[in-house]
Structure formats: structure tokens, C-alpha cells
Design goal:
The structure is a single chain. The chain has 7 helices and 11 strands. Strands 1, 2, 3, 4, 5, 6 and 7 form a 7-stranded mixed sheet that branches. A 4-stranded antiparallel sheet has the order 9-8-10-11. A hairpin with a 4-residue loop joins strand 8 and strand 9. It is elongated. The structure holds flavin mononucleotide (FMN).
């Protein structure tokens, strides 16, 4: 029985780190909201994180009534199939081969996907074919259908989750609940095959005594290690 439990616990550990079921969160953030969303998201799921950075630093996209932001988006809109229309970003070394699920977290700019995130997806979108794609969009107040269209143009062959998540400024502070509800609505665990969202729901219990011996049930008294934590029962 102890051997079976040991094998079971070992299998669970291996399953939770299997490369084919790994998630990558890719985000861009200009004023910090998407960064906060990613921090909250990764407190709820196991995922690696990739931040997209513009190659040119210190740009003020909102200056002069958003002139630069507008100019970047107009260039993309005019020639969406031309690599030269997209602003340069820093080189990305993360290999997408390691991930089965990609969650894109992006700001909305003029009802479209922020230009720097569009660059990343223009460069790498074909490598996302067949992968599970989640989309989380932050905006001040505008609805996100234009961003969804951009995402589907740049990643036409992604396996999109059933819903996208829109977090606007008025519900940004409620993002933990919104993210939790979204993960549940898209059946994140079932679709990804990842059984590792950071919830409190019971995983099979692994109990050891202080000598490192596995116990088949919780003792009624004593000190033991349960799921990696010390427990004292008097
Ligand atoms: C160039 C630019 C254009 C924007 N256009 C819009 C817009 O059309 N509608 C809107 O609701 N918010 C717009 N915003 C606001 C951002 O979507 C919003 O502040 C978002 O939370 C920013 O995310 P970040 O802090 O991760 O950069 C715009 C912001 C910038 C910089």
C-alpha cells in the first residue's frame, strides 16, 4: 500500500511538470496594469512568464494626445502583412516548443491590440498554431472585440479558449476574482490537462512521519509532514 501511494505521489509530481502541458504567459505592459494582472494570474496557476519589451526605450505613447500610439497602430492597419509596419521589440529567446498553452495579456490601444504585442504575435504567431490560446485584455473602458480580431488575425490557427477575459479600470482591483472565474469558465484544467491551479481543493494527501516514512493515514496524535508542511496533532 505504501509503495502504491509513493508511486502515486511521484506520478502526480511528474505529471504536474510535464513539458507538453506547460503554460506560458506572454505579456506587454506600458503603465503597469497588465503586469499586475500577470502577477495575480500566476498566483493562481503554474506558468512561465515572458515580458515583451519595445526595442526603443522611453517612448511616450500617450504624449501629444496619444500621437505615437496612434501612429504605430495606423502603420499596422495600413499594411498588416508587412513586417516593417510593426515596431521593433527586444529579441525573444523563449522557445514556444516547450508550451502547450499560451495566455496573452495585453493592453488595448485605440480599440486594438497594443502595437508591441502585435509585433510579437506577427513574428511568432505561426508557432502558436494548434496551441491553446487564452487572451486577457486590459483597457480603460473600451470593449475588446477589436483586440480579439487582431489576435485571431495574428494567430489564426490557435485553439482559442471558449472565452476571453476583459479587465477594465473599474474592475482592475477585482481582478483576482475575475481571473479565478475565467479559469473556471474556460475549464482551464480540463482543456490544458494541467491539474495544478493553485486552489485549496484536495489533491491526494501525502503524509510522512519525521523519519521520512510514508504513512497510509493521518495519525491521531503526533508530529508529521502532510503535503510538505509540518502538522502537530495533540
Ligand atoms: C496609446 C494608448 C491608447 C489607448 N487607447 C485606449 C482606448 O481606445 N480605450 C480604452 O479604454 N483605453 C485605452 N488606453 C488605455 C489602456 O488600454 C489602459 O490604461 C490599460 O490598462 C493599459 O495597460 P498597461 O498599464 O498594462 O499598459 C490606451 C492607452 C494607450 C497608451
Amino acid at each position: 500500500m505504501k509503495k502504491i501511494m509513493f508511486l502515486f505521489c511521484t506520478m502526480l509530481t511528474l505529471l504536474s511538470t510535464s513539458a507538453s502541458s506547460k503554460t506560458l504567459v506572454v505579456y506587454y505592459s506600458y503603465t503597469g496594469n497588465c503586469r499586475e494582472i500577470v502577477t495575480t494570474l500566476t498566483s493562481q496557476i503554474q506558468a512561465d512568464v515572458l515580458e515583451i519589451q519595445p526595442a526603443e526605450k522611453g517612448l511616450k505613447y500617450e504624449a501629444n494626445n496619444y500621437a505615437l500610439g496612434t501612429q504605430l497602430l495606423n502603420a499596422i492597419k495600413a499594411n498588416p502583412n508587412d513586417a516593417g509596419s510593426y515596431p521593433a521589440i527586444d529579441p525573444v529567446t523563449t522557445s514556444l516548443n516547450d508550451y502547450e498553452t499560451i495566455i496573452i495579456v495585453t493592453p488595448l490601444w485605440w480599440s486594438q491590440m497594443a502595437a508591441n504585442m502585435q509585433t510579437y504575435l506577427f513574428n511568432y504567431g505561426s508557432q502558436l498554431a494548434g496551441k491553446n490560446i487564452g487572451l486577457i485584455v486590459s483597457s480603460a473602458s473600451s470593449g475588446i472585440s477589436g483586440v480579439v480580431d487582431d489576435c485571431k488575425r495574428l494567430v489564426p490557427d490557435g485553439k482559442y479558449f471558449s472565452e476571453n477575459l476583459w479587465i477594465n479600470h473599474s474592475n482592475h482591483s477585482n481582478r483576482a476574482t475575475l481571473i479565478q472565474n475565467w479559469l473556471s469558465a474556460i475549464n482551464y484544467n480540463t482543456v490544458t490537462g494541467i491539474n495544478e491551479t493553485k486552489t485549496t481543493t484536495a489533491a491526494p494527501t501525502c503524509i510522512y512521519d519525521l523519519g521520512g516514512r510514508m504513512l497510509v493515514k493521518e495519525p491521531s496524535k503526533g508530529i508529521y509532514i502532510k503535503n510538505g508542511k509540518k502538522v502537530v496533532i495533540k
